[in-house]
Amino acid sequence: MDTTTRLLAGLATATILLTGCSASGWNVEPALPEPAAAPAGGGVAADRAESGSAPAGGQTDRGVPYTTGTERQIARTASLTLVVDDVSATAERIRALTATLDGWVAGESLALDPGDGARTMPAGSYLTLSVPASRLDDAIRQVGELGTVRDRNATAEDVTDVVVDLDARIRSLEASVNRLQDLVGRAGSVADIAAVERELSARQADLEAMKSQRLRLAGAVERSTLTVALLTPTQSTTTNPIQTGWSQGWNAFLRSVAALITFVAAVLPFALFFGLIALPVWLVVRRRRTRTSHTAGTGRSAASGDFGPDRVDVGPREQDRPGGEGQRQDDADDGPQ
């Protein structure tokens, strides 16, 4: 009895779930042809109707975007590396070819010869082409015929879910902005008006950002980017790593010497200028120091003669001695030996 009851309960639950899913699917279908009817209801219900009535997808109750009946949105890019004899002529032919495919050159860079600078021909060129997505394969084929294809890459990114989500968010924000604009006219106080305007400004900023992102996605889907690298045969060949290392080291040494010569040539005029100013000053200072040293040496010599150890003090002169005592003393000292 318990087993039978459980079985009946399980069948009833499954029936209810299937009925709910069917009802949910049918509830979504009538809303698909009327995406513009939701904003007229106002309030939170209008927001939900606006988000759920997206013909290009939207989101289910679980937040998973659905894309039933929506054309896939694919963003394609490609790149080619060609080996050509004349880089400039090939680049010119690619520009003309791009114009015939309803495209244009979005970017171009020219790589010069990294050697000693004697060559004037370009060593490589890089072009970024923008062509309609439907003509990308033709562009790859026709550009590839202009040289030897060394590398070829192509990518395709499905952005359908992102586009669907952005469309739903944009519609929801547009409805919210319209309601806030109505509230500004019905606000009673200054504080209410300020609060509504702040919220309105924030919603409008979000809306503009989403619209810009949507336009970028639309551009990536409608037009594809083809990057073309043009190389000369000498650049495309594989070189010996040791030879490459020596070559790079020698080039680095030459660049260092050139930088040193440039530095010396830049500093030399200033050094000569300040040297011409500093030389007379140095000579004057040196002469004064020499004179000062000579005067000091003469003074020291005179001082050594007056108070040196070899000087014999003979006392006062004879005419200064009273009564001739000094002379008699000298005679006594010079007595018989």
Task: Give a quick rundown of the structure.
The protein is α+β, with helices and mostly antiparallel strands and 337 residues long. It has two domains: 206 residues, no CATH class; 51 residues. Helices cover 60% and strands 14% of the residues.
Characteristic terms for this protein:
337 residues; alpha+beta; 2 domains
Count of helical stretches: 9
Largest sheet: 5 strands, mixed
Q: Describe the global form.
A: flat
Question: Runs with pLDDT <50, length 5+?
Answer: 1-69, 116-120, 307-314, 324-329
Distance from N terminus to C terminus (CA atoms, Å) equals 168 Å
- Protein structure class: alpha+beta
* Range of helix content: 55-70%
Instruction: Report strand %.
Output: 5-15%
Strand arrangement across the biggest beta sheet: 2-3-5-1-4
- Count of separate structural domains: 2
Order of helices and strands: HHEHEEHEHHEHHH
What is the residue-averaged pLDDT? 72
Specify Rg, calculated over alpha carbons.
Answer: 50 Å
Question: What is the number of strand segments?
Answer: 5
Protein described:
This protein is of the alpha+beta class and 337 residues long. The chain has 2 domains: 32-237, no CATH class; 240-290. 60% of the residues lie in helices and 14% in strands. A 5-stranded mixed sheet has the order 2-3-5-1-4.
Write the layout of secondary structure elements.
Elements: H1 2-31, H2 43-52, E1 74-83, H3 87-100, E2 104-111, E3 124-132, H4 136-144, E4 148-158, H5 160-186, H6 190-222, E5 223-231, H7 233-236, H8 241-307, H9 325-333
Parallel strand pairs: 1-5
Antiparallel strand pairs: 1-4, 2-3, 3-5
